[in-house]
Amino acid sequence: MTEARPVDKDQQLAAARVDHTGTRLTTDQGIPVDNTDNSLHAGARGPSLLEDFHLREKVMRFDHERIPERVVHARGSGAHGHFQVYESLARYTTAEFLCDPELRTPVFVRFSTVQGSRGSADTVRDVRGFATKFYTRQGNFDLVGNNMPVFFIQDGIKFPDVIHAVKPEPHNEIPQGASAHDSFWDFVSLQPETLHHVMWLMSDRAIPRSFRTMQGFGVHTFRLVNAQGANTFVKFHWTPVLGTHSLVWDEAQKIAGTDPDFNRRDLWEAIEAGAFPEYELGLQLIPEDQEFEYDFDLLDPTKIVPEELVPVTPVGKLVLDRNPNNFFAETEQVAFCVGNVVPGIDFTDDPLLQARLFSYLDTQLTRLGGPNFAQLPVNRPLAAVHNHQQDGFAQHQIPVGEGNYHPNTLGGGCPAVPGTGFTHFPERVDGHKVRRRSETFADHYSQSTLFWNSMSGWEREHIIEAFRFELGKCNRMAVRERVVGHLEQVDHQLAVAVAAGIGVDEPAPVGENHGRRSRALSLTARTGNGVLGRKVAVLAAPGVEEVGLARLCQALHERGAKADVLAPMAGQLRTSNRDTLELPEAKGLYTMASVLYDAVVVAGGEDSAAMLVEDGYAVHFVAEAYKHAKPIGAVAEGVGLLRRAGLPGADGAPAPDGAGAGVVIQSEAGPAGADFLEEFIAALTGQRYF
Ligand code: HDD
């Protein structure tokens, strides 16, 4: 067991931080600047002079502030944190950070969307990246995953094709941040291996509520290798402690306009507020001799290993507890490379993974301007770096001595190669060189059907609506028809429902649905715990009943949820008895929208309720929250707003089956009581009421 001590990435980063507080302005050369508001002119109204080095330097630096955005995953958001394993996994691996429960390994995580450019909206329908850099004492390990456990293609040579197809079309660069266009679906219709991932993409997984409520997956099968050299196949899973939760499509589209930074802001604010996002690392471990036990190939990245076959064992926890100091220096310059593995973790022959091993190293050369990107503070390993790699753009170190080759005597034979270090798993390989796909990769439909079968009723409805939206945006009828043809292979009912919405003839049944399900695939199996970090809008107006309002805000605060009081006029609210209770200042109702919240409560108070009922925006706010199946509460006079918005059950008559679910009402006058608060918080825990 190694010595128990934290490995401090923060301390390493501190050396790179620059704080300008209390300093005076200089040029990049350290020359003091006397005036940065005026160029040097020949006469106050005359031309600028070429000798003005300050002007030239300032403009030159500005001209070159941008670097190429990532060719995929351009829009992202990052955070620092740490990872700790629960118990030693030495049985499986020599990776020290997985073997020492005392060791807190610093990490940097970047979440991202795939299709859109750096300035695109957060809530588009897309896959989300979940990339983690572990700064271990044995070097950096990068787990570069997504929030979906499968990928569109089986061989990395198809990556440029699938990305060209999904990115904005080449002739007009439309659409931004969307897969709802002809070229993507043309590709899908011709490449059925995409189907399984497309099912995930059309599900609510593609519009996560928050980076904090999103699963992560390493996707490929990797290997763990122990001290005896024995190999265990492994799939990596991140499970958010808060549960996995999504938006609904109408909401996601509106947020893209109301707050394009929705997910980014949420992550930032949660960390600032101390509600640190947490994820459990889980492993699916498959003994080497069971490689061929399944009806799919472990090397095929379009397949999951169903949890019913191999359970996910929780092995450790990731906590994100610090926002970056500077977006560009850290989040933009972080360079993940799938090839960064530490001793005890190794690759498999998954042909998608194999191509990634080239691409990530290669892409940084263009993006970060040369081969020295590992020296950037956010990329620097905590482990010592010694080798003879030298020179290149932006070399920041000054290697001393003459022995820049191996073997040498001029440098004392250093850096020495002791013969221990990363040893590749000695997999036996035997075969002919062929440009061919393995036949074990041929089944593209069984797991697409498994996913469909595992969805709840409302998840299926959302999938059908998503297909109709996306395919409905395709101009070519032949593309729509071909996709429906593939859906028919997944499930007849699905294909019929989609076809009916997009003007395609009902397909004839082609076969039987196998009927298998995996409960772990449904969001209903991933509710998580509590209401931590949930955002509640409390609608109020002058004359609001203040005791109940204060109780509500406090009850939510105590459970880790956040209450925003929204009123037609921002600022300190006049309350029903003009008392001086400490109430939070109200935000302007018109500056916010129901789509930015997880739930709504209408506060009590006669004057307040009377004003809200007459306010069209407030009525819309509540009606929209109901449409998006969010928990809604109302206290005493506040119930009037629910009535005005036409919510079932608000008028005292029994609501039709299920229609009143998630609506919590306190009819009796007076402040919100304990029963109401408990019931509302229980409803908030239940998330949505479809
Ligand atoms: Fe990739 C970025 C995830 C297949 C080539 N990828 C990138 C990022 C994530 C993923 C999360 C953003 C990293 C960051 O935040 O900087 N990519 C995946 C997953 C895949 C996958 C889960 C399949 C299982 N990717 C994949 C293939 C290729 C690439 C098959 C090429 C053959 N990916 C890249 C890239 C990027 C990248 C071009 C762009 C920016 C970067 O690497 O650093 O190299």
CATH architecture of the domain at 76-150 and 206-244 and 253-296 and 311-375: Beta Barrel
CATH class of the domain at 76-150 and 206-244 and 253-296 and 311-375: Mainly Beta
As a percent range, the share of helical residues equals 25-40%
* Unreliable parts: 1-6
Assign the structural class, choosing from mainly alpha, mainly beta, alpha/beta, alpha+beta, or little secondary structure.
alpha/beta
Largest sheet: 10 strands, antiparallel
Mean pLDDT: 95
Compute the separation of the termini in Å. Answer: 51 Å
Q: C-alpha Rg, in Å?
A: 28 Å
Features:
about 700 residues, alpha/beta, Catalase HpII,  Chain A, domain 1, Hemocyanin, N-terminal domain, Rossmann fold, 10-stranded antiparallel β-sheet, 18 helices, 16 strands, disordered N terminus, binds CIS-heme D hydroxychlorin gamma-spirolactone
Account of the protein in words:
The protein has 690 residues and is α/β, with parallel strands linked by helices. Among the domains are: 223 residues, Catalase core domain (Catalase HpII,  Chain A, domain 1), CATH 2.40.180; 71 residues, Hemocyanin, N-terminal domain (Up-down Bundle), CATH 1.20.1370; 151 residues, Rossmann fold, CATH 3.40.50.880. Helix content is 27%, strand content 14%. A hairpin with a 2-residue loop joins strand 3 and strand 4. The two termini are 51 Å apart. It binds CIS-heme D hydroxychlorin gamma-spirolactone.
